[in-house]
Design a protein that fits this description.
mainly alpha
């Protein structure tokens, strides 16, 4: 138990550091912003209680907001993703269900399952993030393009991270 807490604390710090120090400074023509900090919520164990997911989602989002100067923007999108996570896991659940002690990942349930899970969760997060940021319908299609491009790059980074973890 203590080992898991330390592991997830390290993951939390590592992903937030990469996001704040590296990825927040990368922007391709204003359309692509990879946000891999959502991977922390994605990789939480299946047995994590919903209330704890919401608290961790809030904590993750508020740290990104404080360091980025966007108070509330990332927090609201990350809490929405954390709220949707149990429903998405139920939606993409294998027929036999999830095994006790398993973790979400390519290694456990395969590439197709993981891609579907990540695609849905990252898209929900990015839709909320970018549409709350713009907060008007005037730029609907431009914002949708930003969502699709940023979600695509975020998913690509998450898959690469998963493949690196599997090789270890």
């Amino acid at each position: 138990m203590l080992n898991d807490i330390l592991k997830y604390t390290g993951l939390f710090i590592l992903l937030l550091a990469i996001q704040v120090l590296l990825l927040n400074n990368i922007q391709f023509s204003g359309f692509v912003n990879p946000y891999i900090y959502i991977l922390f919520i994605i990789l939480l164990p299946f047995e994590t209680p919903s209330w704890l997911i919401l608290i961790l989602s809030f904590s993750t989002g508020i740290v990104i907001d404080v360091t980025s100067g966007t108070l509330g923007l990332h927090t609201s999108a990350t809490v929405l993703a954390g709220f949707a996570r149990p429903y998405i896991l139920n939606l993409v659940s294998p027929h036999e269900g999830y095994e006790q002690g398993d973790l979400p990942g390519i290694k456990t349930y395969g590439f197709r399952w993981f891609l579907t899970y990540v695609l849905i969760l990252v898209t929900i997060h990015h839709l909320a993030l970018f549409y709350i940021e713009v907060f008007r319908f005037e730029y609907f299609f431009r914002t949708l393009l930003r969502v699709l491009l940023s979600a695509g790059f975020t998913i690509l980074f998450i898959i690469i991270i998963q493949v690196i973890i599997i090789r270890r």
